[in-house]
């Protein structure tokens, strides 16, 4: 694996975790096999696979780790120092990671330069990005994606970021007929004139409605349409439609039968309901009449009993009045005797 943009991990963290862009692919023999970055503290396993100390600490499992390259298990105390690989990396050509700085040199020189690198930045009035103040004019005229450029076909001004899409759809762009391969100065001419009349443009068979899927140029279609095969296709189509019609008729008859059966079932249920309702009404009336008779009998018995009780009560009152005077005399005599 090789890369051009990566971290440079040194003990002083010189670049503050900024990515450094290299002028060429970085060789694997100076990179950590786990994070694929440059480190000043590289260690090698028995098979010379390199690891930076931070990745090795992450992989540490009770003093052992699984190699990410061949999955072999190694003891960490078997690792050997390979810091000389960092000295090899310092010879690689790289760019200053400060945005807007164009300084390019060896990584060693970049690390020294970065400590004092001060870039005066300015905001692009078009894209609002911060760029090197010295390079602002060049950025606006030839780099900024928001700058206006002219379409090479129609001359229309569009933003640079939209130019590619505009050119792909521009009516004034050169075009080639996809059917006859004739070239046209503009796509508008091809679209509005040739595509409508091109004899090489495939067309559908006029008998497509009866199942013919043949497509060809206008010249070939005339010969094809004159063939008798369409009569066979038409007959097959008619027979197929007749079969479908017969299936529909059969389904309709079946639906009618089901409808009649359903109507008869509903009629039977209604008749059964009416009979049940009549039976219930009749029995209910008989019960009402019987209860009414019993109530009338109770009323008659009550009236008879009431009359008898009144007569007995009057008789008792008369007897009480009749006996009241003799009893009074008897009590008076008994009192005299005492």
TL;DR?
This protein has helices at 53-59, 84-89, 107-114, 136-143, 160-169, 187-197, 218-225, 229-337; strands at residues 5-6, 8-9, 20-21, 38-39, 42-44, 50-52, 64-66, 73-75, 80-81, 93-95, 104-106, 121-123, 130-132, 148-150, 157-159, 175-176, 183-184, 203-204, 215-216. With 338 residues, it is an alpha+beta fold.
Layout: helices, strands, pairs:
Blueprint: E1 5-6, E2 8-9, E3 20-21, E4 38-39, E5 42-44, E6 50-52, H1 53-59, E7 64-66, E8 73-75, E9 80-81, H2 84-89, E10 93-95, E11 104-106, H3 107-114, E12 121-123, E13 130-132, H4 136-143, E14 148-150, E15 157-159, H5 160-169, E16 175-176, E17 183-184, H6 187-197, E18 203-204, E19 215-216, H7 218-225, H8 229-337
Parallel strand pairs: 2-4
Antiparallel strand pairs: 1-3, 5-6, 5-9, 7-8, 10-11, 12-13, 14-15, 16-17, 18-19
Description:
- InterPro entries: Znf_RING/FYVE/PHD, Znf_TRAF.
- The protein contains eight helices and 19 strands.
- Among the domains are: 5-114, Herpes Virus-1 (2-Layer Sandwich), CATH 3.30.40.10; 121-167, Herpes Virus-1 (2-Layer Sandwich); 225-287.
- The strands form nine sheets. A three-stranded antiparallel beta sheet has the order 6-5-9. A two-stranded antiparallel sheet has the order 1-3. A two-stranded parallel sheet has the order 2-4.
- It has helices at 53-59, 84-89, 107-114, 136-143, 160-169, 187-197, 218-225, 229-337, and strands at residues 5-6, 8-9, 20-21, 38-39, 42-44, 50-52, 64-66, 73-75, 80-81, 93-95, 104-106, 121-123, 130-132, 148-150, 157-159, 175-176, 183-184, 203-204, 215-216.
- By secondary structure, it is α+β, with helices and mostly antiparallel strands.
- A hairpin with a 6-residue loop joins strand 12 (121-123) and strand 13.
């Amino acid at each position: 694996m090789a890369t051009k943009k990566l971290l440079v991990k040194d003990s002083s963290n010189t670049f503050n975790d900024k990515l450094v862009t290299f002028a060429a692919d970085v060789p694997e023999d100076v990179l950590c096999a786990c994070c694929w970055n440059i480190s000043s503290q590289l260690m090698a396993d028995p098979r010379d696979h390199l690891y930076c100390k931070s990745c090795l600490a992450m992989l540490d499992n009770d003093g052992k780790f699984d190699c990410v390259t061949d999955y072999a298990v190694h003891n960490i105390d078997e690792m050997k120092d390979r810091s000389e690989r960092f000295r090899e990396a310092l010879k690689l050509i790289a760019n200053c990671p400060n945005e807007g700085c164009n300084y390019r040199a060896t990584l060693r020189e970049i690390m020294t330069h970065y400590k004092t690198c001060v870039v005066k930045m300015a905001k692009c009035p078009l894209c609002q990005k911060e760029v090197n103040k010295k390079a602002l004019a060049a950025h606006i005229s030839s780099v900024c994606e928001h700058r206006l450029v002219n379409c090479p076909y129609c001359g229309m001004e569009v933003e640079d970021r939209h130019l590619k899409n505009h050119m792909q759809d521009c009516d004034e762009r050169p075009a080639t007929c996809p059917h006859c391969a004739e070239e046209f100065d503009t796509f508008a001419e091809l679209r509005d004139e040739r595509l409508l009349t091109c004899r090489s443009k495939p067309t559908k068979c006029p008998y497509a409605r009866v199942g013919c899927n043949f497509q060809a140029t206008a010249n070939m279609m005339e010969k094809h349409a004159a063939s008798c095969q369409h009569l066979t296709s038409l007959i097959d189509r008619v027979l197929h439609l007749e079969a479908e019609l017969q299936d529909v008729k059969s389904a309709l008859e079946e639906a009618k039968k089901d409808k009649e059966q359903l109507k008869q079932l509903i009629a039977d249920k209604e008749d059964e309901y009416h009979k049940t309702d009549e039976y219930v009404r009749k029995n209910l009336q008989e019960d009402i009449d019987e209860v009414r008779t019993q109530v009338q009998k109770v009323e008659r018995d009550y009236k008879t009993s009431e009359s008898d009780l009144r007569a007995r009560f009057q008789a008792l009152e008369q007897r009480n009045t009749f006996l009241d005077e003799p009893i009074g005399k008897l009590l008076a005599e008994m009192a005299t005797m005492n």
